[in-house]
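Hi, here's the filled form for the chain we discussed.

Project: internal
Contact: R.S.
Residues: 207
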Amino acid sequence: MSVVRSKICGITRVEDALVAAHAGADAIGLVFYPKSPRAVTVQQAREIVAALPPFVTTVGLFVNASRGEVNEILDAVPLDVLQFHGDETPVDCEGFRRPWFKALRVGGDEDIAAQIARYANASGILLDTFVAGVPGGTGERFDWSLIPPTLAKPLILAGGLTIDNVQQAIAQVRPYAVDVSGGVEASKGIKDASKVQAFVRSVRSAM
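And the returned structure, exactly as it came back:
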């Protein structure tokens, strides 16, 4: 089985970013969506990114942001990868000179393969849990059996992952990467260091 990457999303503090990096996480996620309890300001994001050691990927999460808003943040914060977590079309996601991936929410009756096929230029696809009115970060998992066995893009699995279920998720889904936020928190936006460390260990030991 190939290496499974781990991303710790919803980082709001330098100390939490460093915990994730030192635990061995491959990426951290910064949420640029003001309605999220895990949202960061440009200044917060700059401080977090500046504190990271080399080889930790910084991912900026956007929800239906305008092209101007995304470019303004990119001018201020050296993000490596973009994550589009709203209702963005393929055209909305392109043209920022960064790799990007699209989050799709799984509720039960959608054609996942057909949705993925729309985003032909994405570097990957993130599958999260559908909850009406909430773009992500719900802490709820979806039925992994709904995921087609073969996908056209690298799969990033999110939605209700925790220390207790991530190894089962990896064994069943065999994703390219796993993405966690609420499952390693002490409170919304504040990570629990021991949970972050245990989550990354669980991912690594599942391989």
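Let me know if anything looks off before we file it.
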